[in-house]
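REVIEWER CHECKLIST
Item 1: Sequence provided? yes
Item 2: Single chain? yes
Item 3: Sequence as submitted:
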Amino acid sequence: MSVYLNTLYITTPDAYLRLEGETVCVMVEKEKRLQVPLHHLGGFVLFGHTMMSPALLGRCADDGRSVVWLGRNGDFRFRLQGPVNGNILLRQAQFKKAGEAVAALAIAKAFIAGKLRNSRQLLLRAAREAKNDQDQTDLGKATKLLEGNIRKLEFAENLDSVRGLEGDGARIYFGQLNKVMGESMRTTFAFDTRNRRPPKDRFNALISFLYALVLSDCRSALETVGLDPQMGFLHVPRPGRESLALDLMEEFRPVLADRLALTLINRGQIKQTDFDSREGGSVLLNDSGRKSVITAYQERKQETLIHPVLEQSVAIGLLPQLQARLLARYLREDVDAYVPFLQR
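Item 4: Structure as written out by the authors:
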């Protein structure tokens, strides 16, 4: 359980929140684990099997504090919102910014800058750890090319230019990921380029599944803060398309999905037997593979790091939630810019 950006996150199973005077008490097995002044809190996010007293629920409704319940895996369940709230104003601000070319371009640049920088950071780390001189050279060249795309991004004049730099960066990045694998794994997980719908090799099948998990977390995060996950800035809105969730996911692809996929491969935690080949050349994770990946993903989300903007230790699983709140602050014009999450 932690407080970030005036929001109390409860991740402890079977926690019970109750009102005690003008404070909120968090009880676990009848033991008081945390007590926070109510006026310090703007909202609550509860994960899994957690509960809140009727008195506290009523007080939150009266005061306009949002209460959001997410599943154990972070999937959005429902939100209680009192009569006084800023959600409609936030969504109005979101739609207004989406219709302003300059504002939409600035937000799209931020998402892609985060993606390119985090991709470059992954390759930089791999280059330092490479045991093969040629791999080290190739990875080093790729990081320089990505750095060039990051510089060019600043001068992109429209969304098509941003998408072009993102596409070129992805081509450079994916072209080197095979060299981040251990040499003994490069045949089993041979990978040259990104393909999907359906994936044609084991590595693409693995990252496609992880991307789906990350996308779900990003959508839940946006729903939690009251943003419309379908109205994006970089991805064109289409019926049924979670455009803003896809936007937010960009900066997390290398951090939450690609890095974990490579770790699973290099540690031998995911194997050839975890995949099935189908007619037509598609490759998919089987039941055992999905179970292994989901378990590893949930364990990864429990790890902590220092958030570069908040300068606090946070659980990795809360990063989409925190970035969604930072985006909401920018849309409300509480801050001058949206700063993407950058892996150190």
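Item 5: Key structural point noted by reviewer: The domain at 2-85 is CATH 3.100.10.20 (Ribosomal Protein L15; Chain: K; domain 2).
Item 6: Recommendation: ____
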